[in-house]
Amino acid sequence: MVVDTLLTASTWFFVSYFVLINGSYLLIHLAALVGIRQNRREQRVTPAYDIHESPVIPGIAIVLPAYNEGPVVASSVRSLLSVEYPDFEIVAVNDGSTDDTLDQLRNAFDLERVDAEYPVEIPCEPIRDVYRASDADLVVVDKENGGKADALNAGVFFTDQPLFCAIDADTVIERSGLIEIVRPFLRDPEQMIATGGTVRVANGCTIRDGVVERVRLSGSALVNLQTMEYLRAFLAGRIGLSVMKSLLIVSGAFGLFRTNAVREIGGYSTDTITEDMELVVRLHRHFGDLNEAYRVEFVPDAVVWTEVPESRQVLGRQRSRWYRGLIESLLLHRRMIGRPKYGVIGLVALPFFVLVEFFGPLIEGLGYLLVPIAFLLGLLNGPFFLLFVAVAVGLGTLMSWLSAFSEVYGFRQYVHPRDILGILFYGVVENVLFRQWKAFIAWKGLVQFLRGDTSWGEMTRVGLEQE
């Protein structure tokens, strides 16, 4: 009797949580479709001015932190130098690399050491030297190792540009990327404090002179599973959350910020392992405490291409770090959760991240362990179990396919029929193999967090193929 009662209660708990998670994701996907439709309308409208000739276009500093990025740093900088924007500079920060990162930059761009002045109050590890390219708007700051957030702070407090763009060294930016990501600042220069762009998977694509010329899926199944993930995360998740004014994450691979706003809150935190999410949540908290109107938006047409892990071990370390960083950010700013003072962020966005993004993988992983045991012991109704699994896989596949539809309908980066069919195929596969593995990684990340593990783990780069 007691066992039956516990089983019934557990069954209803898992079913209720299943409805909560999938209902939340479905709502976000529907909001994303509304956002994509609005975006397509805006794209059809010819701007009343040419952004290249605008006298009030804000200058942008592209801050590029680099630690042991020798295989990719030169191609990334070349890509940045080719962007179409009238007023920008690149501030590459060599964060005490132990490989040939600095030598690669010196050789590729003919750097010369300069006696540059910089504020003594820069919140970062000591700066050793500053270099400038003779024929490009490129500054290289060479400093002692302090981590990614520390390197970003060196660039943020070094530049005098009103906006700065944080970008990863393993990315290739589309030439129109800065123009697209700055548009919300031109529409609302007073309230806009941050915008985020789309991150796409570059593995398998053809890249020439820092420009992605041919978009294709990779020959690696693991990479293609991540491609499907990224499509769902950005073309559904970020767009939907932005429409709902609930955007908590601006990817560290491509985000644009008002420089003085980030300086006001002390720059990036060097005590967290996912500095991008923590920074955005802290910005929400800061302006909420001041009761000032502000905006954070996602810009789907602003695109960078990034190298993703090609081994399960490296990917596991990355996802474990992401999950530990999520826990860290939620705990640091827990007093915002459920507080009307912080508007939609406090009442909707943060509760969603707690209930769905934090607890969701843990409860899902627990279900993967307990449900089969109950089934083998004869404590679970067989037809119900099979129906539940079929519905779970079906709904997960539907979410992935909605993201694929968003790609084909709104952006059309993948045009080859074989690639589109491949995306649909991996939208199914990730729900019967990949998703279960990620639940295990979440549990592993939780254990590491409770043990006080703050390591990044080695992120091995092989470099993007160039022609």
Strand and helix layout:
Layout: H1 2-44, E1 60-66, H2 73-81, E2 88-95, H3 101-109, E3 111-114, E4 127-133, E5 138-143, H4 148-158, E6 163-167, E7 171-173, H5 177-187, E8 192-201, E9 206-208, E10 211-214, H6 221-243, E11 254-258, H7 259-264, H8 275-290, E12 295-306, H9 312-332, H10 343-376, H11 382-411, H12 417-450
Parallel strand pairs: 1-2, 1-6, 2-5, 8-12
Antiparallel strand pairs: 3-4, 4-5, 6-11, 7-12, 8-11, 9-10
Helix pairs in contact: 1-6, 1-10, 1-11, 6-11, 6-12, 8-9, 9-10, 9-12, 10-12, 11-12
Describe this structure as you would to a colleague:
The protein is an alpha/beta fold and 467 residues long. The protein has one domain. Helix 2 links the parallel strand 1 and strand 2. It has twelve helices and twelve strands.
Which features would summarize this protein structure in a list?
alpha/beta; ten-stranded mixed sheet; two-stranded antiparallel sheet; 12 helices; 12 strands
Contiguous low-pLDDT stretches (5 residues minimum) are: none
Distance between the termini: 69 Å
Strands of the biggest beta sheet: in what spatial order?
3-4-5-2-1-6-11-8-12-7
Strand content: 15-25%
| Beta strand count | 12
Number of helices: 12
**Cα shape:** globular
What is the total number of structural domains? 1
- Give the ordered list of helices and strands: HEHEHEEEHEEHEEEHEHHEHHHH
The helix content is 40-55%
Name the average pLDDT. 88
Class from helix and strand fractions: alpha/beta
Major β-sheet profile: 10 strands, mixed
Radius of gyration: 23 Å
